Amino acid sequence: HSLVSKVKTVQIMQLISVDCLLQLLYEEWANYSVFYKYQPIGLVRKYFGEKIGLYFAWLGLYTQMLIPASVVGVIVFLYGCATVDDNIPSMEICHPKNNITMCPLCDRVCSYWKLSTACGTARASHLFDNPTTVFFSIFMALWAAMFMEHWKRRQMRLNYEWDLTGFEEEEDHPRAEYEFKVMQKSLRKDKKSHHKVSTMEKLTCRDRLPAYMANIVMMLLMIGVTFAIVFGVILYRISTKAALHMSSSSITRNHVQLTVKTTAAIINLVVILILDEVYGAVARWLTVLEIPKTDKSFEERLIFKTFILKFFNAFTPIIYIAFFRGRLVGRPGSYLYVFESYRMEECAHGGCLMELCIQLSITMLGKQLIQNNLFEIGIPKLKKLIRFIRSKQGAFQEEERQKKLQRYETDHFLEPFAGLTPEYMEMIIQFGFVTLFVASFPLAPLFALLNNIIEIRLDAKKFVTELRRPVAARAKDIGIWYNILKGVAKVAVIINAFVISFTSDFIPRMVYQYTYSPDGSMHGFVNHTLSYFNVSHFQEVTVSLFFCLYRYKDYREPPWSATPYEISKEFWTVLAVRLAFVIVFQNIVMLMSDIVDWLIPDIPKDISLQIHKEKILLVDHFMKEEQRKIHILESRVSTGSKEVFSRSNNNITTMTHSCSQLHTKCTKASNASNDVFIVQS
């Protein structure tokens, strides 16, 4: 029955004309009003080919899998909202009787401040830094593994439905650029040897060595540019913070942290959007220098370089905030400085997790709204308008309006198809935002889901109305993108382990509650994490002091101990637990991911049974065909033997008749002559 239904489906698809198919795709696929419907993947494959059909099938499954992740992320966020009033550390910070005075956050212009002023930051940090964060990180790691397995099953089903199970990619022909270089190499050898070389030439690693060296140098240079820009943003935050503290407006001074964080994140976003375009062009130029032999090799090398550059561009500011900011500050009296005048920036008392959340959310939402949506809508329309103005149709606009253009004429004014690399790339980067730092931003899956619901219809509309119809290409998988997804999912486990362990206060809270707390509760945790500093130890005191002891966040010995300001044993205890947590978390989650991979079969059971039945039917058909051939051969052999027997009888009769005639002649000869020897002979 399934075979019959597949044949009927193919017959129906063949009856649909191209124009009707395009109109059907526009109404049922490239339309925002049908966002709640499943995509007509069969029609997409019929019009655009298997390669583009697989992309939209993958995007649809990815969007569908984001639904449970979004639900769990919203639950985690709501749990933080519901328990923020019961969070003891934030209650201690916000308590009106709390009179803890903290050391200045910057030199010269920053004054001493009360810990209670960090109440809002501490309460906001609890929304994302609560006990459910660990659970959500484990869930997202397993979610990534389940997504990869479900895609393999979906891909296998599509391969079966599209008759790709036995499809083998043909060997690509060499690119024209590659053959041109090979021909130049052969001509140079011919000139040196003064005769034509008959051996087949090819480009070796030695021929490509200059291109490889240029690739390495340029890749390192581009990554260095990314680091330099991040360093520039750091200097911007330090200098802006000092300038705002000098402001005469009390409102400006009270909102220094929020202003600096938000503006720095926006600057990072603008730089990321600009460098994304630059890095895409650089990656293509470097790939052209390598002169890959085939189009497939060219595409894979281009994808790899583009992914590396854009990954560093998008995630370097986030990695700095998560793992480096506030780690290299030092202590009061011996701070670390940049250019001998800028003190390294510190995290707020609520930790760097809140700043990480702000940076991640602005970067993710900005890339999705500006780059993925506005650019995809605006740039093709702008290019189409420019081509229209420059073309003859723009000169004879009135004349062209009077007649109906053919399909190929209207398609000429559309944007040429540039491949699926940009479409996959933006989704892979989004997958990184969803999985890599999800411990700091549990709402990331929700924003990705909302974006993808629009992205599917936006891409569909772009393919149907804004781009020329591409040449259909057959493919049975998504190629190198699957390996990139798998690598990102593995790296996400490690990064989330470090975020929970080193960026959040989860480990210090657990260590305090089960090791140092007198009653096993979180009361006194804030005081436990603050060290004392005697202001009289400053070389220069630039502010008026009412008392000498102030606090700063660190695990160090007090000034009255035998080893003042040295790292305390609590620091080493917390560090040991953090490292142990990273190792245990990483191994447990990866083991669970492997178990999920093992439990979920790559091929759906019904597809496996159908393939097995078809193989049995195919073998039976071959056996019957062979038996029919053997039966025909045997019948021909038996018929041929009878003919041979009758021919043999005729030959024997003829020979007997000839012998009798010969015998008669011999008898007559013997009677005529007495020479018996002659007659016998």
From TrEMBL:
Domain of life: Eukaryota
GO molecular function: intracellularly calcium-gated chloride channel activity
GO CC aspect terms: plasma membrane
Domain (Anoctamin transmembrane): residue spans on this chain: 44-614
Transmembrane spans: 55-79, 133-151, 216-238, 258-282, 302-323, 427-450
Compartment(s): Membrane
Coiled-coil ranges (or none): none
Major location category of this protein: membrane
Keyword annotations of the record: Membrane, Transmembrane, Transmembrane helix
Membrane topology: Multi-pass membrane protein
Entries under Pfam families matching the protein: Anoctamin (PF04547)
PANTHER family cross-referenced by the UniProt entry: ANOCTAMIN, ANOCTAMIN-1
Family: Belongs to the anoctamin family.
Protein name according to UniProt: Anoctamin
Organism encoding this protein: Amphiprion ocellaris (Clown anemonefish)
Originating gene: ANO1
